[in-house]
Give the backbone structure.
Amino acid sequence: MLPKAARDYYRSGADDEMTLKRNRNAYQRLLIRPFCLRDVSQINTKTSFKLGETAFEIPFPVGIAPTAFHRMANDEGEKATVRGACKEKTIMICSSLSTTALEDVAKASSGEAVLWFQLYIYKDRKVTQDLIARAVKSGFKAIVLTVDTPIFGRRRADERNAFQLPYMKFANFMEYAKDLTVTPGVTTGSSGLWEYANNLFDASINWKDLEWLVKVSPLPIIVKGVMRADDTFKAIQFGASGVIVSNHGGRQLDYAAGTIEVLPEVVRAADGRIPVFVDGGVRSGTTFSRRSRSALKRSSWAARCSGDSPSRAAKESATSSTSSNPSLSIP
């Protein structure tokens, strides 16, 4: 069983957790109206898309979203997760706040997974550029820029638990500091993670910083945290190769819309110029089936999981419903 602090970190959302709940509950309003007498003897779940000039194909439209600190759930951490992604030949987005260095994640891969690296723009731009260079050298194929975290959202569960990493480090930052495990703030009641992130993240970033990142990165940039049509237009204008509709799993701004509620708006704004991905609220293949129809079949979704076996279990559940639901409802 997970320790309480780890369990609360994984499951909690920001403030009153209304966005966290809304991500899931919004699907209850989406109903499937099935067609009948259609030939569904052959179902193909393969998904292909391009990021800039780079083409990708995965066997089913499910990938692993970036989540931090996998070693709190599995002793092998992100190494176990990437092995699961390799077995399913799908996308794994490695968090920059992982407990395994990105080089070691790449080494644990058999080469069957599609590896992308999640990044923040840090106050020290050299750290940002160094992380990109390390990702390129390690064989990652895209950079996922998280833009919904200029500062860390207030997570009350982490505050109550005075959350900090037990016996672990921020593995990707060890060459920049001797010890990035932060002691919880006594006067603010904040978690160590909150203090660390707000000391490192740059709250002044804007669209010009995305333009800069596109110029310095040899890899395509996917912007994660887009929830509006106008921001989709700007992401394309400033060079993004893709966007991820995301509210950070309801862990940043509370009382925000659920991702499924804004997905059609973002897809219309993208208008096929860039791929649109989405995370948040997905619990089964039936959820995915409704999401893909809402997005006019242009989106992919991200499964949150840690470890080899959970990755397979999530995939098997999603793939089973992803195949059976179109068979029962496809036009």
Observations:
- The chain has one domain: 4-28+46-318.
